[in-house]
Amino acid sequence: MLIRKADDVRASEITEEKDYISRRGFLGRAGGIGLAALAGSPLLGASSVGCDASSSRADSTDEGSDVSLDDKLTPYDDVTSYNNFYEFGTDKSDPAANAKNFRTEPWTLEVAGLVDKPAKYHLEDFIAPYKLEERVYRHRCVEGWSMVIPWLGFPMARVIETVKPRASAKYIQLTTLLDPKQMPGQRRPILDWPYTEGLRLDEAMNPLAIFAVGLYGKPLPNQNGAPLRHVIPWKYGFKGAKSIVKITFTERQPATTWNIAAPNEYGFYANVNPEVDHPRWSQAKERRIGEFRRRPTLMFNGYGDQVASLYSGLDLRKNF
């Protein structure tokens, strides 16, 4: 896994404050992240950090690296125009077309349930305590396509530690905004709105699991889940809740939207597993966006060394 921690970023790669402030309007349009959410961070999201779609950022040669030289970044234009975000429509081009005027400021996030520190946050206050890191991850969609994306975010574990879950908390549920006026897809009963997803607490605590506020060194575009989403790279893409407004800690496994809609097709765990086919197609191979050839799908999307122990003794065919 390629991780660039804030302490590793050279001074020459940091955007000058005066330059960053001049981009306030652009940031508001591009991703809806208020300046306060990123200002003061040692990693100020400038494209000068080196996010070049024509080159591979995955250049780590360290033993155990999870993104190889063969994993070219998916071009920014593809990442931001080919999306599943049913709140804005079911076609891959709908989110980019229908989310242009989506308002992400101000944004309130609620932490609730079995925690000692429940609270309602302004997004800026929620993000402020955490150092942003760049994470380059593979992603695999249950439909058979994949991408490689450089995210900007922070570990979910940091948030969990901050709010202090009680001993009885075993899961978290993440809930997306419900706003049919802004989200035209919610005007149709395609799914049981609002969109919800869930993880076991130990899954959410895994170092690979992050909350993302940007990609390619820029604030999250609306169609990619602005202003806050979570990213779980060893699971199929539908597990990633976008435009999150609530995080609830629970004792019992929470209901999740796609599992409610089609329990025989979309399990709670949704770990990338080439040995368990979707009822309507094989999961053995995938097509990386921008490529014509299909490649073998990797167990846990290639992150088995980091996450396989989470599922020791669990029947991954039954718990798909």
Short structural summary:
This protein is α+β, with helices and mostly antiparallel strands and 320 residues long. Helices cover 16% and strands 21% of the residues.
Protein described:
This protein is an alpha+beta fold and 320 residues long. The protein has one domain: Alpha-Beta Complex (Sulfite Oxidase, Chain A, domain 2), CATH 3.90.420.10. It has 10 helices and 13 strands. Strands 1, 4, 5, 8, 9, 10, 12 and 13 form an 8-stranded mixed β-sheet that branches. It is globular. The protein starts with a strand and ends in a 13-residue tail after the last helix. Mean pLDDT is 84; it is low at 1-65.
| C-alpha-based Rg, rounded | 19 Å
Helix content: 10-25%
What is the CATH architecture descriptor?
A: Alpha-Beta Complex
Largest sheet: 8 strands, mixed
Report the CATH superfamily.
Oxidoreductase, molybdopterin-binding domain
**CATH-derived topology:** Sulfite Oxidase, Chain A, domain 2
Structure classification: alpha+beta
Poorly predicted sequence stretches spanning 5 or more consecutive residues: 1-65
Q: Could you tell me how far the N terminus lies from the C terminus, measured between alpha carbons in angstroms?
A: 24 Å
Number of domains: 1
Quickly name the level 1 CATH class. Alpha Beta
Q: What is the number of helices?
A: 10
How many DSSP E strands? 13
